[in-house]
Amino acid sequence: MVRLGFIIGFIALIGVMLSGFAAYRVHDQELQIEGIALARAIDVHASLVQDRLTERELLARVASGLFRAPSVVKANMLQPLRSSIYAFKTDFVVASWIARLKPGELGQAESELRSAGFSNPTIRDFDDQPLDIKAIDKPVNVLMDLEPRSPDTIGLPGRALDRHSIVGPMLAQATVAGKPVASDPIPLLRVNGPVGLVLAAPVSQDGSTGLAGFVTFSYELAPLMLANDDRSLFSVVLKDPRDANDEFVANDSGVVTSRAVAQDSPAPSMVRKVTFGGRDWSLAYYAKTNVLQRAQQTAVIVAAIGLALTGIICGLFGYVAYNNLRLSREIQVRIGFERRLTAVIDELNHRVKNILAVIQSIVTRTLRHGSDIDVARELLIGRIHAMSNVVTLLSESQWQGVKLKGLFESRAIPHAERIAVNGPDIAVSARAAQSLSLLFFELASHSDEGLSLVGKHPHIVATWEITGEEPETIFHFRWEEFNTSAATRREDSDFGLILLDRVAPEALGGTAKRYFTDVSYVYELTAPMVTVVDMSERDRTDQISAPVRPVR
């Protein structure tokens, strides 16, 4: 009996030790796994927020760069930019033009606001209180135009914003910095409106170094920085830049409120900084679940199971082995997910850089020295719209290529209804789609510059065919404008010639030629199908978008 008791006691001791060891391992690994998952989710969220902020700051820079301030005061200054700012598909609440007016221009400004149909055309203070314009002896910043014009915004123009507690200092800082500056959080549209941020980009006066005014965009704070999935592991708040003891938080409906941080409140799990408008913003992340408590609960369960299986050593070892295998599988899945996500981000960064390089080339070539600004603006808007359209099509197909006929849609090609399209509807690669989209826009935009030999717009036929046998098939494209001659068709621009003769052919690894016949203008492009379709690009996209499965 004594010997049996000793054996039972020894088995019980081994069981307790193994159960305690298993509980410790589970507790430690649960903490690590949950910590890695939370940190990774927070990093991804902060990266997405920063990308979103960078896009909106880029819009402000592009808008201020395209803006041309006249020598007179006008109340429709945003008219040339309306199509451009909407082409970016951003979620701004209000875009506005704030003019820096001299005292002698205030009377003329009131006349312009009145003729533009704004409900209150008088120059007044930011809070709608009367303002003695005769007593003003220095330039003031006056809201002169905005978009969209709605019942909530039609009464805002005419307000002088210099004495506004938030907008005034922001405009002063933007004047000194000479670049876009963001404001402190502020209610938008009205006193109790949604909380948001205003981004102001200074605009220089044409022909001088003086400041003409500011192009501003306002955004709601909730979708800009505080949006996150209900199933996410955390909730995010924005630290108030004016008071470290306050923070902004959005509820399930997207309503942002300010709350004070109590001294006994738990500290955030992590804090990340993002940059917007020349300022650093602190995002605090709070874990929705108590990771330590959850790990302890899991450890207690493991210990209880281990103690229950104390009498069966083999069963205990089998449980520990199974539990370690389960944890190993979870770690492998997490690692695989991180690798795939890193590959996706790297691929996205590469493609975004390529697109930005193309846009930079378009802007540089279009707005070259000596070009007509009105013609250049229309060409620039059209070329960027063509790029935006092809990026939208590629995003819908997860960058696996687009149908060639889809590039002839009317929203991307000027007067597409006059183009007769004929050819197999092949799916071209992302690289080929971007080059062909710009090529089609360039051909179509010049085909509509003048009338044909018969006094009508030229009739256009776009055809393509595939010849040869795999793997040496050839893509032939032909663009022909009938009843057109060198005398009736406007010469291609420098950018157009480079695109037609060099950029598009080199991007597809082929050759191109253009010439006039007795009755038409012809552009032909020949390239191997292996570069037009680029199956390696599609295979790579499929690979990085494939779901991660646990190792069995």
Automatic annotation (TrEMBL):
Residues annotated as domain CHASE: 68-252
Entries under InterPro entries matching the protein: CHASE_dom, Sig_transdc_His_kinase_HWE
E.C. numbers: 2.7.13.3
Membrane spanning stretches: 6-24, 298-322
Domain named Signal transduction histidine kinase HWE region: residues: 347-425
MF annotations from Gene Ontology: ATP binding; protein histidine kinase activity
Keywords (A to Z) from UniProt: ATP-binding, Kinase, Membrane, Nucleotide-binding, Phosphoprotein, Transferase, Transmembrane, Transmembrane helix
Class of the enzyme per the UniProt entry, highest EC level: transferase
Reactions that this protein is recorded to catalyse: ATP + protein L-histidine = ADP + protein N-phospho-L-histidine
Pfam families associated with the record: HWE_HK
Top-level division of the source organism's lineage: Bacteria
Protein name: histidine kinase
Organism: Bradyrhizobium lablabi
